[in-house]
User: Fold this.
Amino acid sequence: LCRAVCARVRAAGLVPCILRHPMPYGDLRQQRVQRFRCLADLDRHGCTLEEREDYRHHLEAGTEVWAGVDYSAVLREAEGGADVVVWDGGNNDTPFVRPDLWICVTDPFRVGQETTYYPSEVNVIQADVIVVNKANACAREQAEVARERMAELNPRARVVLADSELTLGAAGSRPASPQGHAALAAWLEGRTVVAVEDGPTATHGEQPFGAARRACEEHGAAVFDWRPCAVGALRDTLKAHPHLGCTLPAVGYGRVQVADLKA
Assistant:
């Protein structure tokens, strides 16, 4: 959604930038203000897998990403080179700046959690627009329940249903092409593969499936059960979140976790 907003801003002849919520996994003194202009900056700042996953799509689209610890300083720097600042708040984070337009994205598979997770409820109540995504991935009734729930919690917001298109792309070949999608779909059929999902969504988000599992189901692939192979941090993650099943969460917050993930 943030990429779509940035594309609209760019189409209007303006320059957008992304302001990300903080992910302070390293030396906070070195992370006071972080500017990402290209993929090489991910290495320069020693980014975790989660940061790389969240930042790379913006960078590939040509949008600068700003993050850090001192958000007063981060915002001043970001405003200096952009016409529109788009807050991209992962993990349900509320914006650290006062927005002119507040858009909240919700998940129809997690209806009920909007009031049991903080600050999810704040986002829903304060939003100007609420997008119920994945409407094409669940039963229509389920999407309508989510829409009605959002309207009940925030009657003044505009609530819209949005489809989430699932496309397949080989690593390093973004954006995925229709030809690449078709070739990978045919390749998947009948194979057994590892389904790696977004870490926070699969773990404390309590959702044991995501785009990877859905791709396997749609294209006839079996999901490999990685649990007997789990070591170190992954074994601990499995104990803490037994609902995961065969889903492998991308928990790469440091060198030890990355090493365990590779193992």
About this structure: The CA atoms of residues 26 and 129 lie 34 Å apart. The mean pLDDT is 89. The two ends are 34 Å apart (CA to CA). DSSP finds eleven helices and eleven strands in the chain.
